[in-house]
Design goal:
single chain, 5-stranded parallel β-sheet, alpha+beta, 7-stranded antiparallel β-sheet, Rossmann fold
Length: 661
């Protein structure tokens, strides 16, 4: 049962916006109003809320800002769908049970038990679509009705059972074709379990024999020969004594002769005097520097005199003024000329009788001045050592004399070293010969012990080789018995495994055969079910539809018959030969009959959109009375009409539109 619907939608092509907020009641409800007031949109929004965009009359892009919310009851539970063009949700009470377009569509189909096609056939008569059932070809109508009543699903299921049975039959045939009972292997003579055969001991003895043979095949070491001692032995101390004597003699030869009498007095003063003389040269005296500076100052005055003389002449060359009355002349720069004449008089007075000196080299004067300044720092040392005399010996000679003097004390010690019994080279050779003999003797002792151990081990290996001579033959016989036991045990294990597989395969084949028979029994039962459904459904459909058409036509039409091939006749007349209103009431009767038979127990709703458009007033009145009568059988009927049938309640539409830019 439908409870409440709210929606809002804009159609971009026309700029129309429709919206609504409606509550639906139980019983017969009529939706009325002028043309294009949005009456059919209400039914379209109900269908869209339940089944999504497939229920829209146009393409999804033809609906802008579409928002719909619908609440409805099914089997005692209340459900609410919320949809836009891009989203969808469904709630059971306040709990969300599905989200997304596909999930919501599937959940609605699961709740109702049928989809849009069944809903539109059994629960809805859309505008201009009332004669759709009658206009179909019989085969198309049969397929549609079979789908609506579930016979196509029964046919598909029966077909699937047959296919499964045939597949199982082919599988069983293949399984039986390749199934062979395994043969138990024959036990070898003298069989002993491989786990009880101990090969490890014989293999260890055989490995020992092979190792002995390997050792015996190796070349034997020759008996070592004892080394001969050298004729003379020398100790390391004698070699060291010879080296000490030779070193002392060599050092005596290098000692310098005794030095003459020498003294270090005067060497320091003389070296300081020479150092000052080398490091602090003076090219001019202080008097010479002072005279050069005085000459330079005098030269500057003469240059100033020359400059003023030239400037005086330049000012006179500028010109003179002449007095017009007395013809007296005076320089044009008389003031400046007067100033220069005064300065010239002062300079000429200072330089009267003075001879002009040569210009000194001021660079050399500056160098000489810096030399004198540096010399002033060591002038006291110079005054002290400038009269020092050159000593008899230099500092280097004195150092050599001191070294020679110290070396003379070493001479007695070196002469006291005593000679050895030979040279260090001879004694060292004898000493090394002794070391080599001792090393060879130690090596000989080790090789002799090793040779004796080898000789003893060789004798033992020979004796053990004789003891183990029969081991390879015993091992080969035991390995043969072990291999035969393993082959038999492997074959026996394979036989047991194959036998188990064979027995399991037999069980599986038996189970498959039972499953195949089950599918075949199921197919047969479905065929019987289809026949029983048709035997029940078609007479029931004919009875209910005939009852409805009789009421809607006021007894003018009484019997609708749908045969096994789904050809439809009304009172024995083919449906297609009826008038427009006759076809309308016949199709409506069939649809109402299908709804009563199929969907009324789950979702007792019928939606009709101007189903009386092609009927005259009398027949439309009878149709309305029939719908009133159906209100006792169908929980909820919504009829869109321009007329005003005798309904339980009305939804009147007037201004349900607003224009948008």
């Amino acid at each position: 049962m439908l409870n409440h619907l709210t929606y809002s939608v804009t159609f971009p092509s026309t700029g129309r916006t429709l919206s609504g907020d409606f509550s639906f009641q139980k019983g017969f409800g009529a939706i009325t109003g002028p043309n294009e007031a949005g009456k059919s949109v209400i039914l379209e929004m109900i269908r869209y809320s339940l089944f999504g965009t497939a229920a829209l009359r146009g393409k999804a892009e033809d609906y802008k800002n579409l928002k719909v919310k619908l609440s409805f009851d099914v089997k005692g539970d209340t459900y609410t769908t919320q949809r836009t063009i891009t989203s969808a949700k469904i709630f059971r009470g306040d709990t969300e049970i599905a989200n997304g377009q596909k999930g919501t569509n599937n959940k609605v189909t699961e709740i109702l038990g049928f989809g849009l096609k069944v809903f539109d056939t059994a629960c809805v008569a859309n505008q201009g679509d009332i004669e759709k059932l009658g206009s179909m070809q019989p085969t198309e109508r049969k397929a549609m009705v079979d789908s609506v009543i579930g016979l196509s699903a029964i046919d598909d299921l029966a077909k699937w059972c047959g296919q499964e049975a045939n597949s199982l039959a082919s599988l069983i045939e293949g399984m039986e074709g390749g199934l062979v009972k395994p043969t138990k292997p024959e036990q070898p003579e003298g069989y002993v379990e491989s786990s009880k055969i101990n090969l490890a001991e014989l293999r260890a003895l055989n490995d020992e024999l092979n190792q002995i043979k390997g050792r015996l095949s190796q070349p034997r070491q020759a008996k070592p020969v004892e080394p001969v001692a050298p004729p003379r032995t020398v100790c390391e101390e004698e070699v060291e004594q010879a080296r000490a004597y030779e070193t002392a003699q060599a050092e005596l030869k290098r000692l310098p002769p005794p030095p003459p009498e020498f003294s270090e007095d005067g060497i320091d003063d003389w070296e300081l005097r020479e150092k000052i003389r080398r490091n602090y040269p003076t090219t001019m005296t202080a008097e010479q520097i002072a005279q050069a500076e005085a000459d330079m100052e005098l030269i500057r005055k003469f240059e100033r005199l020359d400059h003023l003389t030239k400037q005086h002449q330049d000012l006179l060359d500028v010109g003179t003024h002449t007095c017009p009355s007395c013809s007296h002349e005076w320089p044009m720069e008389a003031d400046r000329v007067g100033q220069i004449i005064e300065k010239l008089a002062v300079l000429k007075t200072e330089l009267a009788g003075v001879e002009r000196p040569s210009k000194p080299d001021m660079v050399n004067i500056d160098v000489a001045r810096r030399q004198l300044q540096a010399f002033d720092k060591v002038r006291d040392d110079w005054d002290r050592v400038k009269v020092a005399k050159q000593p008899q010996y230099t500092r280097q000679q004195v150092a050599q004399f001191q070294a020679a003097k110290q070396a003379q004390a070493r001479r007695a010690e070196l002469e006291a070293v005593e000679p050895a019994s030979g040279t260090s080279k001879e004694l060292n050779a004898l000493w090394r010969a002794r070391l080599a003999y001792e090393h060879e003797l130690a090596s000989y002792e080790a090789r002799r012990v090793e040779w004796e151990a080898q000789d003893s081990a060789y004798a033992k290996d020979r004796a053990r080789e004789v003891e183990l001579a029969g081991t390879p033959a015993s091992l080969a016989a035991l390995e043969k018995a072990y291999d035969q036991a393993k082959i038999y045990e492997d074959r026996l294990a394979t036989y047991k495994r194959d036998l188990k597989i064979f027995q399991e395969r037999q069980k599986e084949i038996k189970a498959r055969k039972e499953q195949e028979q089950g599918y075949r029994n199921g197919r047969e039962a479905l065929t019987i079910l289809r026949r029983l459904v048709k035997q029940h459904l078609i007479p029931s459909l004919n009875k209910v539809a005939s009852h409805y058409i009789s009421r809607m036509t006021g007894g003018q039409r009484n019997v609708i018959e749908v045969d096994e091939d789904f050809d439809i006749s009304v009172d024995g007349q083919p449906l297609n030969t009826l008038s427009g209103s006759g076809k309308a009431v016949a199709n409506l009767s069939l649809r109402l009959g299908l709804g009563q038979v199929l969907t009324n127990n789950v979702f007792s709703v019928f939606l009709g959109d101007e189903i009386d458009a092609s009927m005259d007033a009398d027949r439309a009145h009878n149709t309305a009375l029939t719908l009133e009568y159906l209100a006792s059988r169908i929980s909820q009927i919504l009829l869109v009409s321009h007329k005003y049938p005798q309904a339980d309640y009305y939804i009147e539409l007037e201004a349900n539109e607003k224009n948008i830019n």
